[in-house]
Amino acid sequence: MQKTWQAICEIINTADAKLEEFMLSAGLSTLQINKLNKFIKEWNNLKKSADSFDQFLTPVSPIEVEYPFEQDDFKYTWKIWKEYLREQHGIYIRSRAEQQSLLYLNEISEGNADKAVCYLRYAMAFTYRFFFKVEKKDTVNPPNNNNNDSDF
């Protein structure tokens, strides 16, 4: 699709140059120029629309992702995490989001690669779309079942 869009943009640029050349060399009367100006106004709107649409079809170049941890276990688990997101949730993580996710993972794991791996594995094991800091909760005592104050 991008090649098609580039071809359309080239056609617009070529037509624009030819229109400008025509206007300079045609020797048009004032009346003809006034009529042509209506067309030129619409032509300029078309070019403006094409320029604003271009941002949706011209991809942003990815950045180089920097890992906060160099351990092979972390890099492998991160690769599995990205594959898991694609397979389980249909999420393709792009470079800028990946970089920010790595920064966040480094932050919540307090710079500990082993914790970071645990957080990723935990998220995958429970099929989460995101990872988070996992904290051990205090054991809660179950309610006393010998209570006879039941409403039933």
Please give a structural write-up.
This protein is mainly α and 152 residues long. The chain has 5 helices and no strands. Helix 1 packs antiparallel against helix 2. The radius of gyration is 30 Å and the shape is rod-shaped. Residues 138-143 and 145-152 have low confidence and may be disordered.
Q: What's the shape?
A: rod-shaped
Q: Calculate the mean pLDDT score and round it.
A: 85
From the alpha-carbon coordinates, what is the Rg to the nearest angstrom? 30 Å
Helix content: 55-70%
User: How many β-strand runs?
Assistant: 0
List keywords for this structure.
64% helix; single chain; rod-shaped; 152 residues; mainly alpha
Outline the secondary-structure elements.
Elements: H1 2-25, H2 30-57, H3 72-89, H4 95-108, H5 113-125
Helix pairs in contact: 1-2, 3-5
Describe the structure concisely.
This protein has 152 residues and is mostly helical. The protein is built from five helices and no strands.
